[in-house]
Specification:
By secondary structure, this protein is an alpha+beta fold. 22% of the residues lie in helices and 33% in strands. A hairpin with a 5-residue loop joins strand 16 and strand 17.
Length: 290
């Protein structure tokens, strides 16, 4: 399954060093489980998105895949992709950018012809450059935000409620970032998504999973508070919390975390692994929740 990571460091940018694909699978499993792309999204001092991504698997260029990226931002978004829809192309690689926002997604949404019809109706099909379900869901959120005056959380809820009611859905876990705010959704309970609120009193210079590692000496030295989101717990801190199914979480510029559960308890047309084609099913192997 795709790996997601998000971090909000507050109102003042911090420096962080990222490594992606730090512990690739054994060679015998690479052909099915190596990444199909990876990317990191940050924001510059003017709040403009800055995206560094590549549509390659680790075994195609291990040196590039393991290269450290030193970045400075208030918010960060990283994604390691296992393709369920769309080939290994830059336009299909996360994070995606629309209206100065970035989004990364983990899951599978089907009935894309129906979703595209909705996007055409709303006049935003031109936002879609690639083949993924993720970019199309993002365009639906963007359309809702444009129509409601820029209320991102309301747009997320409206868009995902429509998806849950109208499309076949396996999972639609998302992290959406701007230069000042972060939103996350876990829906339904197919894949894990964890949140960790750090008050600034505990050391947290380095955190890692098998796919994404993050180190911030600045945060360690200054004991800077932060809020992190990840598909896997990144250390043994007992404060990691598994988000609820249907939970919509917002981290504001002051690092206050607001949580609500406005989505339907279950999507109308919920899919299982057995319902997915071979490629999609291989990309969605579950992680252990705990």
């Amino acid at each position: 399954m795709c790996r997601l990571f998000g971090m909000h460091a507050g109102k003042t940018p911090v420096k962080a060093t990222f490594w992606l694909l730090t512990a690739p699978d054994s060679l015998s499993r690479q052909s099915r489980r190596e990444a199909d792309g990876f990317g990191i999204g940050t924001f510059d001092g003017e709040g403009r998105p800055v995206v560094d991504k590549a549509p390659i698997a680790a075994y195609e260029d291990k040196a590039f895949a393991a290269e450290a990226r030193d970045l400075s931002s208030t918010t960060f978004l990283a994604h390691v992709r296992y393709a369920s829809t769309g080939g290994n192309l830059l336009v299909n690689t996360h994070p995606f950018e629309q209206d100065n926002r970035l989004l990364a997604h983990n899951g599978v949404v089907e009935d894309l012809d129906r979703l595209e019809a909705r996007l055409r109706q709303l006049g935003v099909m031109d936002l879609v450059k690639g083949d993924t379900d993720s970019e199309r869901v993002f365009a639906l959120i963007t359309a809702e935000a444009r129509s409601n005056g820029g209320d991102v959380e309301a747009a997320i809820v409206s868009a995902l409620a429509w998806v849950a009611e109208n499309l076949r859905l396996f999972a639609v876990n998302i992290i959406l970032t701007t230069g000042s705010d972060v939103w996350a959704v876990r829906y339904p309970d197919t894949h894990p998504l964890y949140v960790l609120e750090l008050a600034g009193s505990e050391p947290h210079a380095g955190m890692r999973t098998q796919r994404i590692s993050v180190h911030s000496q600045e945060m360690a030295e200054g004991r800077r508070p932060a809020v992190l989101l990840a598909t896997e717990k990144m250390d043994d801190n007992p404060k990691w919390r598994l988000m609820d199914s249907g939970e919509v979480l917002h981290i504001d510029p002051s690092l206050k975390v607001h949580s609500s559960n406005p989505l339907p308890p279950e999507p109308r047309y919920r899919l299982t692994l057995a319902d997915l084609d071979v490629t999609a099913a291989a990309s969605q192997q579950p992680l252990k929740v705990g």
